[in-house]
Amino acid sequence: MSAGTVVVLAVDCSTTAAKAVAYDETGTAVAQASRPLRTDQPQASWHEQDAAQWWTATRDALADVVGRLVGSATVGAVCLTHQRETFVCVDAAGAPLRPAILWLDGRAHTEIAELGSPAVHAVSGKPPDTTPALYKLAWLSRHEPEMLRTAARIGDVQAYLAEQLTGRWATSHASADTLGLFDLDALTWSPELLELAGVRADQLPDLVPSGELIAQLTPEAAASIGLPGPVPLVAGIGDGQAAGLALGVTGPGVAYVNLGTSMVLGTQSSTYLTDPAFRTLAGVTPGTFTLETVLNAAAYVATWCRQEFGGTTAEAGELEAAAAALPPGSEGLLTLPYWNAAQTPYWDPLARGATIGWHGRHTRAHLYRSILEGVGFELRLQLERLEHVTGVPLTSLRLVGGGARSPLWVQILSDITHRQVRVCSDGELSAAGAGILGQAYLDGAGSSAAPTAPAAEPPGWDVSADPTVASAYDALFTVYITLYPQLRDVFGALAATSRDPS
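Given the sequence above, the corresponding C-alpha coordinates read:
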Protein backbone atom coordinates (compact mmCIF):
# COMPACT_ATOMS: atom_id res chain seq x y z
CA MET A 1 0.00 0.00 0.00
CA SER A 2 1.53 3.28 -1.10
CA ALA A 3 1.80 6.43 0.94
CA GLY A 4 -1.37 8.51 0.81
CA THR A 5 -3.68 5.58 0.04
CA VAL A 6 -7.32 6.24 0.95
CA VAL A 7 -9.33 3.16 1.87
CA VAL A 8 -13.00 2.38 2.40
CA LEU A 9 -13.91 0.18 5.36
CA ALA A 10 -16.75 -2.15 4.32
CA VAL A 11 -18.66 -4.27 6.83
CA ASP A 12 -20.87 -7.24 6.02
CA CYS A 13 -22.86 -8.11 9.15
CA SER A 14 -24.29 -11.40 7.94
CA THR A 15 -26.15 -14.18 9.72
CA THR A 16 -22.97 -15.95 10.80
CA ALA A 17 -20.31 -13.24 11.21
CA ALA A 18 -19.42 -9.57 11.01
CA LYS A 19 -16.75 -9.24 8.33
CA ALA A 20 -14.74 -6.05 7.83
CA VAL A 21 -12.64 -5.41 4.72
CA ALA A 22 -10.50 -2.40 3.75
CA TYR A 23 -10.55 -1.60 0.00
CA ASP A 24 -8.18 0.77 -1.76
CA GLU A 25 -9.15 3.07 -4.65
CA THR A 26 -8.85 0.19 -7.16
CA GLY A 27 -11.25 -2.03 -5.21
CA THR A 28 -8.46 -4.29 -3.97
CA ALA A 29 -8.88 -5.74 -0.49
CA VAL A 30 -5.83 -4.73 1.56
CA ALA A 31 -6.90 -6.01 4.98
CA GLN A 32 -9.78 -8.00 6.42
CA ALA A 33 -11.02 -9.59 9.62
CA SER A 34 -14.16 -11.22 10.96
CA ARG A 35 -15.89 -12.06 14.21
CA PRO A 36 -18.50 -14.83 14.55
CA LEU A 37 -22.15 -14.31 15.44
CA ARG A 38 -24.21 -16.82 17.39
CA THR A 39 -27.79 -17.74 16.50
CA ASP A 40 -30.15 -19.19 19.11
CA GLN A 41 -33.14 -21.42 18.40
CA PRO A 42 -35.26 -21.32 21.57
CA GLN A 43 -38.14 -23.17 19.87
CA ALA A 44 -38.58 -25.11 16.67
CA SER A 45 -38.54 -22.72 13.67
CA TRP A 46 -37.49 -19.74 15.86
CA HIS A 47 -34.16 -18.08 15.03
CA GLU A 48 -32.86 -15.21 17.16
CA GLN A 49 -29.66 -13.28 17.87
CA ASP A 50 -28.53 -10.91 20.57
CA ALA A 51 -28.29 -7.70 18.55
CA ALA A 52 -25.65 -6.34 20.92
CA GLN A 53 -23.24 -8.83 19.38
CA TRP A 54 -23.80 -7.19 15.95
CA TRP A 55 -22.08 -4.14 17.37
CA THR A 56 -19.33 -5.85 19.34
CA ALA A 57 -18.49 -8.13 16.41
CA THR A 58 -18.54 -5.23 13.95
CA ARG A 59 -16.47 -2.99 16.23
CA ASP A 60 -13.87 -5.67 16.89
CA ALA A 61 -13.59 -6.68 13.22
CA LEU A 62 -13.18 -3.02 12.20
CA ALA A 63 -10.56 -2.45 14.92
CA ASP A 64 -8.68 -5.51 13.72
CA VAL A 65 -8.64 -4.23 10.14
CA VAL A 66 -7.59 -0.73 11.15
CA GLY A 67 -4.76 -2.27 13.15
CA ARG A 68 -3.60 -4.18 10.07
CA LEU A 69 -3.42 -1.16 7.79
CA VAL A 70 0.17 -0.24 7.15
CA GLY A 71 1.98 2.83 5.85
CA SER A 72 0.08 6.07 5.78
CA ALA A 73 -3.30 4.74 4.63
CA THR A 74 -6.24 6.98 5.49
CA VAL A 75 -9.77 5.73 6.08
CA GLY A 76 -12.04 7.80 3.85
CA ALA A 77 -15.43 6.23 4.62
CA VAL A 78 -17.25 3.32 6.21
CA CYS A 79 -20.12 1.50 4.48
CA LEU A 80 -22.34 -1.33 5.74
CA THR A 81 -24.13 -4.28 4.18
CA HIS A 82 -26.04 -6.85 6.20
CA GLN A 83 -28.43 -9.76 6.56
CA ARG A 84 -31.83 -8.67 5.34
CA GLU A 85 -35.32 -8.88 6.88
CA THR A 86 -33.83 -9.27 10.37
CA PHE A 87 -34.99 -6.65 12.90
CA VAL A 88 -34.48 -5.54 16.48
CA CYS A 89 -36.52 -3.57 19.06
CA VAL A 90 -34.51 -1.18 21.24
CA ASP A 91 -35.14 1.25 24.08
CA ALA A 92 -34.44 4.98 24.12
CA ALA A 93 -30.79 4.34 24.99
CA GLY A 94 -30.38 1.98 22.01
CA ALA A 95 -30.25 -1.22 24.09
CA PRO A 96 -32.06 -4.27 22.66
CA LEU A 97 -35.29 -5.05 24.50
CA ARG A 98 -35.44 -8.66 23.31
CA PRO A 99 -33.43 -10.90 20.99
CA ALA A 100 -33.52 -9.83 17.35
CA ILE A 101 -35.75 -11.97 15.12
CA LEU A 102 -33.95 -13.25 12.03
CA TRP A 103 -34.97 -13.47 8.40
CA LEU A 104 -35.33 -17.28 8.50
CA ASP A 105 -37.48 -17.32 11.65
CA GLY A 106 -40.72 -19.22 10.99
CA ARG A 107 -42.91 -18.42 14.01
CA ALA A 108 -45.45 -16.20 12.23
CA HIS A 109 -47.24 -18.76 10.02
CA THR A 110 -50.65 -17.77 11.43
CA GLU A 111 -50.03 -14.08 10.74
CA ILE A 112 -48.84 -14.87 7.21
CA ALA A 113 -52.04 -16.81 6.54
CA GLU A 114 -54.30 -14.12 8.01
CA LEU A 115 -52.58 -10.92 6.89
CA GLY A 116 -50.82 -11.87 3.67
CA SER A 117 -52.80 -10.73 0.64
CA PRO A 118 -52.44 -9.61 -2.97
CA ALA A 119 -52.82 -6.02 -1.74
CA VAL A 120 -49.87 -6.38 0.67
CA HIS A 121 -47.83 -7.98 -2.11
CA ALA A 122 -48.66 -5.16 -4.54
CA VAL A 123 -47.52 -2.44 -2.12
CA SER A 124 -44.52 -4.13 -0.51
CA GLY A 125 -43.31 -6.21 -3.45
CA LYS A 126 -43.14 -9.23 -1.12
CA PRO A 127 -45.37 -12.30 -1.46
CA PRO A 128 -46.66 -13.62 1.88
CA ASP A 129 -43.67 -15.48 3.31
CA THR A 130 -41.63 -16.24 6.38
CA THR A 131 -38.90 -13.70 5.57
CA PRO A 132 -40.46 -10.19 5.71
CA ALA A 133 -40.43 -8.70 9.21
CA LEU A 134 -44.01 -7.50 8.74
CA TYR A 135 -45.53 -10.80 9.87
CA LYS A 136 -43.14 -11.33 12.78
CA LEU A 137 -43.88 -7.81 13.98
CA ALA A 138 -47.57 -8.67 13.80
CA TRP A 139 -46.75 -11.80 15.83
CA LEU A 140 -45.08 -9.58 18.46
CA SER A 141 -48.11 -7.28 18.54
CA ARG A 142 -50.24 -10.30 19.43
CA HIS A 143 -47.89 -12.27 21.69
CA GLU A 144 -45.66 -9.54 23.19
CA PRO A 145 -47.79 -6.40 22.79
CA GLU A 146 -46.08 -4.46 25.58
CA MET A 147 -42.70 -5.04 23.94
CA LEU A 148 -43.83 -3.58 20.64
CA ARG A 149 -45.74 -0.72 22.28
CA THR A 150 -42.88 0.45 24.50
CA ALA A 151 -39.99 0.00 22.04
CA ALA A 152 -38.50 3.39 21.27
CA ARG A 153 -37.16 2.19 17.92
CA ILE A 154 -37.56 -0.76 15.56
CA GLY A 155 -35.23 -1.32 12.66
CA ASP A 156 -32.96 -3.41 10.50
CA VAL A 157 -29.33 -4.34 11.11
CA GLN A 158 -27.95 -1.24 9.39
CA ALA A 159 -30.15 1.08 11.47
CA TYR A 160 -28.87 -0.53 14.68
CA LEU A 161 -25.23 -0.32 13.65
CA ALA A 162 -25.65 3.22 12.29
CA GLU A 163 -26.88 4.37 15.68
CA GLN A 164 -23.93 2.71 17.40
CA LEU A 165 -21.50 4.32 14.95
CA THR A 166 -23.04 7.76 14.48
CA GLY A 167 -25.85 8.24 16.97
CA ARG A 168 -28.39 8.52 14.13
CA TRP A 169 -31.23 5.99 13.75
CA ALA A 170 -31.19 5.71 9.96
CA THR A 171 -30.91 3.25 7.11
CA SER A 172 -31.20 3.15 3.33
CA HIS A 173 -34.24 2.48 1.17
CA ALA A 174 -32.64 -0.74 -0.07
CA SER A 175 -32.16 -1.95 3.50
CA ALA A 176 -35.44 -0.79 5.05
CA ASP A 177 -37.46 -2.19 2.17
CA THR A 178 -36.85 -5.82 3.14
CA LEU A 179 -38.76 -5.38 6.41
CA GLY A 180 -41.93 -5.54 4.33
CA LEU A 181 -43.31 -2.25 5.71
CA PHE A 182 -42.36 -0.20 2.67
CA ASP A 183 -44.36 1.22 -0.21
CA LEU A 184 -41.71 0.13 -2.65
CA ASP A 185 -42.88 2.07 -5.67
CA ALA A 186 -43.07 5.29 -3.60
CA LEU A 187 -39.90 4.53 -1.57
CA THR A 188 -41.46 5.38 1.77
CA TRP A 189 -43.03 3.69 4.78
CA SER A 190 -46.59 2.53 4.08
CA PRO A 191 -49.18 3.65 6.68
CA GLU A 192 -51.37 0.66 5.77
CA LEU A 193 -48.56 -1.84 6.29
CA LEU A 194 -47.46 -0.19 9.54
CA GLU A 195 -50.99 -0.51 10.88
CA LEU A 196 -51.08 -4.15 9.83
CA ALA A 197 -47.85 -4.84 11.71
CA GLY A 198 -48.75 -2.80 14.78
CA VAL A 199 -45.77 -0.44 14.34
CA ARG A 200 -45.67 3.36 14.65
CA ALA A 201 -43.91 5.52 12.10
CA ASP A 202 -41.94 7.31 14.84
CA GLN A 203 -40.29 3.99 15.79
CA LEU A 204 -38.76 3.48 12.35
CA PRO A 205 -35.40 4.69 10.98
CA ASP A 206 -34.82 7.79 8.92
CA LEU A 207 -34.44 6.91 5.23
CA VAL A 208 -31.30 7.80 3.30
CA PRO A 209 -30.65 6.96 -0.39
CA SER A 210 -27.97 4.30 -0.73
CA GLY A 211 -24.54 5.77 -1.38
CA GLU A 212 -25.31 9.00 0.48
CA LEU A 213 -24.14 10.16 3.89
CA ILE A 214 -25.90 8.89 7.02
CA ALA A 215 -23.67 10.84 9.41
CA GLN A 216 -20.11 11.13 10.64
CA LEU A 217 -18.86 8.53 13.11
CA THR A 218 -18.93 9.86 16.65
CA PRO A 219 -15.55 10.48 18.25
CA GLU A 220 -16.27 7.64 20.68
CA ALA A 221 -17.10 5.16 17.90
CA ALA A 222 -14.08 6.24 15.85
CA ALA A 223 -11.79 5.80 18.87
CA SER A 224 -13.24 2.34 19.59
CA ILE A 225 -12.09 1.08 16.18
CA GLY A 226 -8.75 2.88 16.27
CA LEU A 227 -9.47 5.86 14.04
CA PRO A 228 -7.98 9.23 14.97
CA GLY A 229 -11.15 11.12 14.12
CA PRO A 230 -14.65 10.90 12.65
CA VAL A 231 -15.20 9.62 9.11
CA PRO A 232 -18.45 9.44 7.09
CA LEU A 233 -20.78 6.46 7.32
CA VAL A 234 -22.23 5.90 3.84
CA ALA A 235 -25.67 4.35 3.50
CA GLY A 236 -25.27 0.75 2.40
CA ILE A 237 -27.66 -1.90 1.07
CA GLY A 238 -28.73 -5.46 1.84
CA ASP A 239 -26.21 -8.22 1.32
CA GLY A 240 -27.94 -9.67 -1.76
CA GLN A 241 -28.00 -6.41 -3.68
CA ALA A 242 -24.44 -5.65 -2.55
CA ALA A 243 -23.14 -8.98 -3.88
CA GLY A 244 -24.98 -8.35 -7.15
CA LEU A 245 -23.30 -4.97 -7.47
CA ALA A 246 -19.87 -6.50 -6.92
CA LEU A 247 -20.62 -9.15 -9.54
CA GLY A 248 -21.66 -6.61 -12.14
CA VAL A 249 -25.30 -7.74 -12.16
CA THR A 250 -26.62 -4.33 -13.14
CA GLY A 251 -28.37 -5.01 -16.45
CA PRO A 252 -30.82 -7.46 -18.08
CA GLY A 253 -29.98 -11.08 -18.84
CA VAL A 254 -27.53 -11.48 -15.96
CA ALA A 255 -28.28 -12.94 -12.54
CA TYR A 256 -26.39 -13.67 -9.35
CA VAL A 257 -26.94 -16.94 -7.53
CA ASN A 258 -25.82 -16.95 -3.91
CA LEU A 259 -25.61 -20.59 -2.85
CA GLY A 260 -25.24 -20.01 0.86
CA THR A 261 -27.38 -20.85 3.88
CA SER A 262 -30.25 -19.94 1.59
CA MET A 263 -30.19 -19.84 -2.20
CA VAL A 264 -30.98 -16.44 -3.67
CA LEU A 265 -31.11 -15.62 -7.37
CA GLY A 266 -31.34 -11.95 -8.30
CA THR A 267 -31.56 -9.85 -11.42
CA GLN A 268 -32.19 -6.16 -12.05
CA SER A 269 -35.26 -4.41 -13.43
CA SER A 270 -35.89 -0.79 -14.39
CA THR A 271 -39.62 -1.23 -13.84
CA TYR A 272 -41.62 -2.17 -10.76
CA LEU A 273 -43.03 -5.68 -11.20
CA THR A 274 -44.70 -8.04 -8.74
CA ASP A 275 -45.52 -11.71 -9.17
CA PRO A 276 -45.37 -14.89 -7.06
CA ALA A 277 -42.45 -15.93 -9.28
CA PHE A 278 -40.17 -13.56 -7.35
CA ARG A 279 -39.96 -11.01 -4.58
CA THR A 280 -39.28 -7.40 -5.52
CA LEU A 281 -36.76 -5.28 -3.63
CA ALA A 282 -35.36 -1.78 -3.91
CA GLY A 283 -32.41 -1.68 -6.29
CA VAL A 284 -28.96 -0.29 -5.70
CA THR A 285 -30.06 3.17 -6.85
CA PRO A 286 -33.50 4.81 -6.46
CA GLY A 287 -35.80 3.99 -9.35
CA THR A 288 -34.35 0.54 -9.94
CA PHE A 289 -35.52 -2.77 -8.55
CA THR A 290 -34.07 -6.17 -7.78
CA LEU A 291 -36.15 -9.25 -8.57
CA GLU A 292 -35.18 -12.23 -6.43
CA THR A 293 -36.13 -15.83 -6.05
CA VAL A 294 -35.31 -17.51 -2.76
CA LEU A 295 -35.02 -20.90 -1.10
CA ASN A 296 -34.39 -20.51 2.62
CA ALA A 297 -32.61 -23.85 2.99
CA ALA A 298 -29.85 -24.63 0.50
CA ALA A 299 -26.41 -25.06 2.07
CA TYR A 300 -28.41 -25.17 5.30
CA VAL A 301 -29.75 -28.60 4.31
CA ALA A 302 -26.45 -29.84 2.90
CA THR A 303 -24.69 -28.81 6.11
CA TRP A 304 -27.39 -30.47 8.20
CA CYS A 305 -26.88 -33.70 6.27
CA ARG A 306 -23.10 -33.62 6.69
CA GLN A 307 -23.38 -32.85 10.39
CA GLU A 308 -26.00 -35.48 11.14
CA PHE A 309 -24.80 -38.24 8.82
CA GLY A 310 -21.28 -37.30 7.71
CA GLY A 311 -19.46 -38.04 10.95
CA THR A 312 -16.05 -36.39 11.30
CA THR A 313 -14.72 -33.71 8.96
CA ALA A 314 -12.76 -36.35 7.06
CA GLU A 315 -15.86 -38.53 6.77
CA ALA A 316 -17.86 -35.55 5.51
CA GLY A 317 -15.31 -35.19 2.70
CA GLU A 318 -15.75 -38.86 1.94
CA LEU A 319 -19.51 -38.29 1.82
CA GLU A 320 -19.07 -35.73 -0.96
CA ALA A 321 -16.79 -38.09 -2.89
CA ALA A 322 -19.24 -40.97 -2.49
CA ALA A 323 -22.11 -38.78 -3.69
CA ALA A 324 -20.07 -37.73 -6.75
CA ALA A 325 -19.63 -41.40 -7.68
CA LEU A 326 -23.40 -41.97 -7.81
CA PRO A 327 -25.45 -41.63 -11.01
CA PRO A 328 -27.66 -38.59 -11.65
CA GLY A 329 -30.95 -38.96 -9.82
CA SER A 330 -29.46 -40.73 -6.80
CA GLU A 331 -30.98 -44.02 -8.00
CA GLY A 332 -34.55 -42.83 -7.63
CA LEU A 333 -34.26 -40.65 -4.53
CA LEU A 334 -35.76 -37.14 -4.77
CA THR A 335 -35.54 -34.48 -2.05
CA LEU A 336 -37.83 -31.48 -1.67
CA PRO A 337 -35.51 -29.07 0.22
CA TYR A 338 -38.13 -27.14 2.19
CA TRP A 339 -36.49 -27.50 5.62
CA ASN A 340 -37.32 -23.81 6.29
CA ALA A 341 -40.66 -23.56 4.43
CA ALA A 342 -41.27 -23.05 0.71
CA GLN A 343 -40.54 -19.72 -0.89
CA THR A 344 -40.55 -18.98 -4.64
CA PRO A 345 -43.01 -19.66 -6.23
CA TYR A 346 -45.29 -21.30 -3.63
CA TRP A 347 -44.72 -19.08 -0.55
CA ASP A 348 -46.00 -21.71 1.88
CA PRO A 349 -44.76 -21.28 5.48
CA LEU A 350 -46.12 -24.72 6.42
CA ALA A 351 -44.18 -26.65 3.78
CA ARG A 352 -41.40 -28.90 5.04
CA GLY A 353 -38.67 -31.07 3.65
CA ALA A 354 -39.43 -34.45 2.12
CA THR A 355 -37.31 -37.22 0.64
CA ILE A 356 -39.19 -39.60 -1.64
CA GLY A 357 -38.25 -42.96 -3.10
CA TRP A 358 -36.27 -44.73 -0.39
CA HIS A 359 -35.28 -48.34 -0.86
CA GLY A 360 -32.77 -50.69 0.73
CA ARG A 361 -29.93 -49.87 -1.66
CA HIS A 362 -29.85 -46.22 -0.65
CA THR A 363 -27.08 -44.87 1.59
CA ARG A 364 -26.32 -41.58 3.25
CA ALA A 365 -24.41 -40.64 0.08
CA HIS A 366 -27.63 -41.04 -1.90
CA LEU A 367 -29.40 -38.73 0.55
CA TYR A 368 -26.64 -36.15 0.29
CA ARG A 369 -26.62 -36.16 -3.51
CA SER A 370 -30.42 -36.01 -3.64
CA ILE A 371 -30.29 -32.87 -1.46
CA LEU A 372 -27.84 -31.20 -3.85
CA GLU A 373 -30.05 -32.20 -6.76
CA GLY A 374 -33.20 -31.01 -5.00
CA VAL A 375 -31.71 -27.53 -4.66
CA GLY A 376 -30.78 -27.71 -8.36
CA PHE A 377 -34.34 -28.58 -9.33
CA GLU A 378 -35.59 -25.64 -7.23
CA LEU A 379 -33.20 -23.33 -9.08
CA ARG A 380 -34.53 -24.50 -12.45
CA LEU A 381 -38.13 -24.09 -11.29
CA GLN A 382 -37.41 -20.56 -10.09
CA LEU A 383 -35.45 -19.58 -13.20
CA GLU A 384 -38.15 -20.72 -15.59
CA ARG A 385 -40.95 -18.98 -13.67
CA LEU A 386 -38.97 -15.73 -13.47
CA GLU A 387 -38.16 -15.73 -17.17
CA HIS A 388 -41.77 -16.49 -18.07
CA VAL A 389 -43.05 -13.45 -16.16
CA THR A 390 -40.39 -10.95 -17.19
CA GLY A 391 -39.87 -12.19 -20.74
CA VAL A 392 -36.12 -11.72 -20.27
CA PRO A 393 -33.91 -14.81 -20.67
CA LEU A 394 -31.21 -15.13 -18.04
CA THR A 395 -28.21 -16.24 -20.05
CA SER A 396 -25.48 -15.56 -17.50
CA LEU A 397 -25.53 -17.01 -13.97
CA ARG A 398 -22.80 -15.79 -11.60
CA LEU A 399 -22.47 -18.17 -8.69
CA VAL A 400 -21.09 -17.35 -5.25
CA GLY A 401 -21.46 -18.61 -1.69
CA GLY A 402 -20.19 -21.54 0.30
CA GLY A 403 -21.96 -24.08 -1.89
CA ALA A 404 -20.00 -22.84 -4.91
CA ARG A 405 -16.90 -24.46 -3.41
CA SER A 406 -18.36 -27.89 -4.20
CA PRO A 407 -17.46 -28.91 -7.78
CA LEU A 408 -20.10 -31.62 -7.58
CA TRP A 409 -22.86 -29.19 -6.65
CA VAL A 410 -21.87 -26.64 -9.30
CA GLN A 411 -21.92 -29.30 -12.02
CA ILE A 412 -25.31 -30.53 -10.81
CA LEU A 413 -26.73 -26.99 -11.01
CA SER A 414 -25.37 -26.54 -14.55
CA ASP A 415 -26.67 -29.93 -15.72
CA ILE A 416 -30.16 -29.46 -14.26
CA THR A 417 -30.64 -25.88 -15.51
CA HIS A 418 -28.92 -26.37 -18.90
CA ARG A 419 -26.99 -23.16 -18.22
CA GLN A 420 -23.38 -22.21 -18.17
CA VAL A 421 -22.53 -21.20 -14.62
CA ARG A 422 -19.68 -18.84 -13.85
CA VAL A 423 -18.19 -19.70 -10.46
CA CYS A 424 -16.96 -16.39 -9.11
CA SER A 425 -14.55 -15.46 -6.38
CA ASP A 426 -15.41 -16.84 -2.97
CA GLY A 427 -14.18 -13.60 -1.43
CA GLU A 428 -16.36 -11.21 0.53
CA LEU A 429 -18.59 -10.11 -2.35
CA SER A 430 -21.25 -8.41 -0.24
CA ALA A 431 -18.53 -6.39 1.47
CA ALA A 432 -17.07 -5.62 -1.96
CA GLY A 433 -20.43 -4.16 -3.01
CA ALA A 434 -20.43 -1.97 0.09
CA GLY A 435 -16.87 -0.96 -0.81
CA ILE A 436 -18.05 0.14 -4.27
CA LEU A 437 -20.74 2.32 -2.70
CA GLY A 438 -18.25 3.84 -0.28
CA GLN A 439 -15.82 4.59 -3.08
CA ALA A 440 -18.59 6.14 -5.20
CA TYR A 441 -19.33 8.47 -2.29
CA LEU A 442 -15.68 9.49 -2.07
CA ASP A 443 -15.62 10.03 -5.83
CA GLY A 444 -18.59 12.37 -5.49
CA ALA A 445 -21.15 10.18 -7.23
CA GLY A 446 -23.49 9.77 -4.26
CA SER A 447 -26.85 8.36 -5.37
CA SER A 448 -27.14 10.68 -8.36
CA ALA A 449 -25.51 8.07 -10.58
CA ALA A 450 -25.20 4.31 -10.42
CA PRO A 451 -22.04 3.17 -8.65
CA THR A 452 -19.43 1.82 -11.01
CA ALA A 453 -19.66 -1.97 -11.12
CA PRO A 454 -16.90 -4.13 -12.56
CA ALA A 455 -16.80 -3.62 -16.33
CA ALA A 456 -15.67 -7.14 -17.22
CA GLU A 457 -16.93 -10.49 -16.02
CA PRO A 458 -15.80 -11.11 -12.46
CA PRO A 459 -12.87 -13.45 -11.90
CA GLY A 460 -13.78 -17.10 -11.90
CA TRP A 461 -14.31 -20.05 -14.19
CA ASP A 462 -17.16 -21.40 -16.28
CA VAL A 463 -18.90 -24.74 -15.84
CA SER A 464 -21.02 -26.05 -18.72
CA ALA A 465 -23.79 -28.62 -18.72
CA ASP A 466 -23.07 -32.17 -19.84
CA PRO A 467 -25.77 -32.77 -22.52
CA THR A 468 -26.18 -36.44 -21.66
CA VAL A 469 -26.60 -35.82 -17.94
CA ALA A 470 -28.80 -32.78 -18.55
CA SER A 471 -31.18 -34.92 -20.59
CA ALA A 472 -31.46 -37.44 -17.75
CA TYR A 473 -32.27 -34.64 -15.32
CA ASP A 474 -35.06 -33.40 -17.60
CA ALA A 475 -37.08 -36.56 -16.91
CA LEU A 476 -36.47 -36.24 -13.16
CA PHE A 477 -37.49 -32.58 -13.20
CA THR A 478 -40.92 -33.47 -14.56
CA VAL A 479 -41.37 -35.72 -11.52
CA TYR A 480 -39.88 -33.22 -9.08
CA ILE A 481 -42.31 -30.43 -9.94
CA THR A 482 -45.25 -32.68 -8.98
CA LEU A 483 -44.01 -33.26 -5.43
CA TYR A 484 -45.05 -30.05 -3.69
CA PRO A 485 -48.54 -29.80 -5.27
CA GLN A 486 -49.26 -33.36 -4.11
CA LEU A 487 -47.85 -32.80 -0.61
CA ARG A 488 -49.26 -29.34 0.09
CA ASP A 489 -52.32 -30.59 1.98
CA VAL A 490 -50.18 -33.10 3.86
CA PHE A 491 -47.90 -30.31 5.07
CA GLY A 492 -50.89 -28.30 6.31
CA ALA A 493 -52.38 -31.27 8.14
CA LEU A 494 -49.02 -32.14 9.68
CA ALA A 495 -48.55 -28.56 10.90
CA ALA A 496 -52.02 -28.63 12.49
CA THR A 497 -51.09 -31.65 14.60
CA SER A 498 -48.02 -29.96 16.06
CA ARG A 499 -49.31 -26.41 16.47
CA ASP A 500 -49.28 -24.95 19.97
CA PRO A 501 -52.98 -24.40 20.90
CA SER A 502 -52.02 -21.28 22.89
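The chain has a mean pLDDT of 92. Try to locate this feature in the C-alpha coordinate string yourself.
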